[in-house]
Write a structure and sequence with these properties.
The protein is mostly loops and about 100 residues long. The protein is about 15% helix and about 5% strand. It has helices at about 65-75, 90, and strands spanning about 5, 25. A two-stranded parallel sheet has the order 1-2. The longest helix has 10 residues, at about 65-75. The radius of gyration is 12 Å and the shape is globular.
């Protein structure tokens, strides 16, 4: 599988429950988007913007995040992905 690029402008979108493994989200604007229960394993998000998003139950395993992205996502992270069984905070490697 090769990474699939996603359009760079996707604010207010719903990715609820989506399998986004290996998706290229670089430089995307995902402000106020819904990633509830989404699987984002190994997605490429280097310059993506995530202000105001919902991430309850999402799986971010092996996603390389900038420090500011990780800090923000960890501040809003909760839940466990219903498909992978992975805790959202654990997948983000949040410190307690």
């Amino acid at each position: 599988l090769s990474p699939c690029p996603l359009s760079v402008l996707q604010p207010n979108s719903s990715f609820h429950g989506a399998n986004m493994k290996l998706v290229n989200m670089d430089s995307g604007d995902f402000e106020n988007s819904d990633f509830t229960d989404a699987i984002l394993e190994e997605a490429y998000v280097a310059n993506a913007q995530f202000k105001g998003i919902k991430i309850e139950g999402s799986d971010w395993t092996e996603v390389q995040l900038r420090a500011d992205q990780r800090k923000y996502l960890c501040s809003i992270a909760s839940g466990t992905n219903p498909v992978t069984g992975v805790d959202t905070r654990e997948s983000l490697v949040c410190s307690d």
